Structures are given as structure tokens and as C-alpha cells.
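WARN retry 2 of 3 for item q-0093 after timeout on previous attempt; input resubmitted unchanged.
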Amino acid sequence: DDFFDGYPKLAAFMESDANFMEFRQYKYLRIRRLLHMQAELKEMEDQLSHLDAQDAEHDEINLKSRDRDDKQKWPRRKELLEDIHCKLDQYDDLLFRTYNLMKMKKPTSRNRGSYARYMTSKKMIANDEREFIRYSEDLVALGGELEDGPINGWVEDLLRLTSIRISQFFFRSKAQRRRTNDKYLNYYDKGRLDIFVKLIMTILGTILLMVPVFVLYKLQQTGYVKDIIVLAFTLAFAIFVSVFTKAKRHEIFAATAA
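OK item q-0093 returned
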């Protein structure tokens, strides 16, 4: 609330939660530039091959002595290699920056939607300058180090429906409570929220593991019925781990096997 409307307040909003630090990659422009530089390098490569072929036919010593080649009245090969070096630096720089950019994670549809609604409802910036948020496939998120899964979003929705005082006391720091007076803008401490979500997932995981043990203990039948129960709960646990956590494939396999 201490910032002026427009870009100052929008920047303050994005800074308040790492999940809202969303920007366009401009993949198309990067690829276009890479393609042009690739074509330019191919042209330089052809020029170098042509020079080599000429010297191989008429003055082979220039290919065997760099010093002799550089001291020519017009050292074309030296100049061309210097141009190639500069162009390769530019090409490599953009290539590696694009590679690193492509590895960055995309914002969740939930966070992108919240960000878009805030910009639109508050009319933070001009209409044409907020069009970037529509390019969902071209956006990257700079923040969000904590593990955000579906349960995080459900918990946040639940907190909005509960008493404001309760949610402020347990899930907001003093700094977050002082940040804004906007009743439609809710900040939550990601660390506290993450601990609460981990507690929920621990309880659910324990239930999924203990229920089949209890059922099998009480069940008097043998044979296929018990096998089906074990299979069903093992499958349910694997689905729970894969859907509600950020576990990798080998971690899901290890958890299921255990």
C-alpha cells in the first residue's frame, strides 16, 4: 500500500510472493535470432572453406604457416577467423542462456490466474502492456522454491473460507499482516503453509499404510481377497505419492516397493 499505482505497486506485489515473479521467455524471438546467427556462421564457414581451397591450389604454404598467412598484404583468413570468433561468442552466449531459460519451471495455472486477476482488477498497467500474461506457454516463474502441490492450493482456498483472524494468526507473519489493508489480497507464510501441508500428507500417508494392515488383520478370508486388498491399497498409495507430491519416478517406485 506504500507504493504508487502502476508499475511501482505491481513490482511490490510480485516481490511479495515469489510465485508471482512471472515473466515471458520470448522463445520465438530467441529461436529466430539463433537461426539467423546459425545461418551467418554457416556463411562464414563456407567462406573459410573457400579460402582454404584457394590456398591449397595456389599457395599451400599459407595453410602450413600461420605467421606467413597473417603477414599477407590482406590477411583475409585472419580477419575472417576473428569475425567468426566474435559471432561464435554471441551465438554461444544466447544458446546457453536459452538452454538455461528452458529449464526454468513454468508458473502453475493457479498462480498465473491469481496474478492475471490482480493486474486486471486493479488495472495496474495499460491494457496492451499486460497482454504478456496471456502467453501461458511462454511464461517462466522465478520463485517458488518450496514444494507446491495441489494440496497447497486446496489449503489456501480453505483458509480463505475460514475465519480471517485464525488464518492470520497461524499462517501469516507480522510483516505480512502489515503489508496491505486490501481485504481481497491474502498473503500466507509459505514456510508455515508447507509445514501444515506436510502434516496433512503425513496423516494421509499413514492412513493409507495402516488401513490395509487393520483390514487384513480383521479379515478372516484368505486367497484372492487379501491379494486384491493389498494391490488396491498399494496402487492407492502410489497414486497419492505421484499426484500430491513432487516425487520423481524413482522415488515413487522406491516408496511403492517399500
